[in-house]
Design a protein that fits this description.
- With 299 residues, the protein is of the alpha/beta class.
- The chain folds into 2 domains: 164 residues, NAD(P)-binding Rossmann-like Domain (Rossmann fold); 116 residues, N-(1-d-carboxylethyl)-l-norvaline Dehydrogenase, domain 2 (Orthogonal Bundle).
- 52% of the residues lie in helices and 12% in strands.
- Strands 1, 2, 3, 4, 5, 6, 7, 8 and 9 form a 9-stranded mixed beta sheet that branches.
- Strand 1, helix 1 and strand 2 form a beta-alpha-beta unit.
- Helix 1 packs parallel to helix 6 and helix 8 packs across helix 12.
């Protein structure tokens, strides 16, 4: 019986682990916050004290950490804290769900293959609620032999598993393009709401009209609801788009491809970050606009 492990029980990872458990899998987990891992396994599964222990126990390891650097640490560790790669059995599959530079993902596949391991490039999208319900989207690429082992677990975690190529990189490229649109749409939504506030339009009325008009977007409807509620609890933080739009621009720069809207949106998130809103919800990018009074939410 194939055994699955998941590393990183954050907003997305905890939901994905729950989806795996709901599908009938016995889920092995690791999180740097030991108490979070123990809380998850109180309803079933096994919490591991070390990455090496989890790697040895699992045929498929799903990594849901923030970025490439954390993925490297999960896999290869350091002198004092071994990662999971060295203990994984030959033929085991590592599923990478972070938003990363596609070239880095290609190089990681080659590095893991040299160790006798298989790899699926599998960035995710949809948010915490869809992760918890198993309704998120996975943008994947990998060799057929990797899919053969990992596919049942991918299908348990996501409503849509797109197979975009037979080697790493294509999944990450599509995710980067998705992040281009997501970041630009959030920035545009904030700009539109800020203009409305500046012009004295009632914020609730503006939201109601736009969400029922052609100018609406999923990001306007979702993120401007946070602004109306004055709730900047970070479901996705400002600094996530500093990172992700930075990757977008790096990818385009390598082929000398102009991205004027992405560049502007990146600067807006950078401004919000340096203004002290780095860890707030990405809708806090609206706070960079001068001369407006933001909604205070309902008591």
């Amino acid at each position: 019986m194939t055994t699955v492990g998941l590393i990183g029980l954050g907003a997305m990872g905890s939901g994905m682990a729950s989806s795996l458990r709901r599908a009938g899998h016995s889920v092995q987990v690791f999180d740097v916050r030991r108490e979070v891992a123990e809380a998850f396994t109180s309803a079933g599964g096994t919490a591991h004290d070390t990455l090496a222990s989890l790697g040895a126990a699992c045929d498929v390891v799903v990594s849901v950490v923030v970025n490439a650097a954390q993925t490297e640490a999960v896999l290869f560790g350091d002198a004092s804290t071994p990662g999971c790669a060295a203990s994984m059995k030959p033929g085991s599959v590592f599923v990478m769900c972070s938003t990363v530079d596609p070239n880095w993902s290609v190089a990681l596949e080659a590095r893991l293959e040299a160790m006798g391991l298989r790899y699926v490039d599998a960035p995710i999208s949809g948010g915490a609620a869809k992760a918890a319900s198993g309704q998120m989207t996975m943008m994947t690429a990998g060799k057929p032999e990797a899919y053969a082992v990992a596919e049942p677990f991918l299908n348990a975690m996501a409503a849509k598993v797109y197979k975009l190529g037979d080697s790493a990189g294509a999944g990450s490229k599509v995710k980067i393009i998705n992040q281009l649109l997501a970041g630009v749409h959030i920035a545009a939504a904030a700009e539109a709401m800020a203009l409305g506030l500046r012009e004295g339009v009632d914020a609730e009325a503006l939201y109601e009209v736009i969400t029922n008009s052609a100018g609406n977007s999923w990001m306007f409807e979702n993120r401007m609801a946070h602004v109306l509620a004055a709730d900047y609890t970070p479901l996705s933080a400002v600094d996530i788009f500093v990172k992700d739009l930075g990757i977008v621009l790096d990818m385009a720069r390598a082929s000398k491809f102009p991205l004027p809207l992405s560049s502007t949106a990146h600067q807006m998130f950078m401004q919000a970050s340096t203004a002290g809103f780095a860890k707030e919800d990405d809708s806090a990018v609206i706070k960079i606009f001068p001369g407006i009074e933001l909604p205070k939410g309902k008591a």
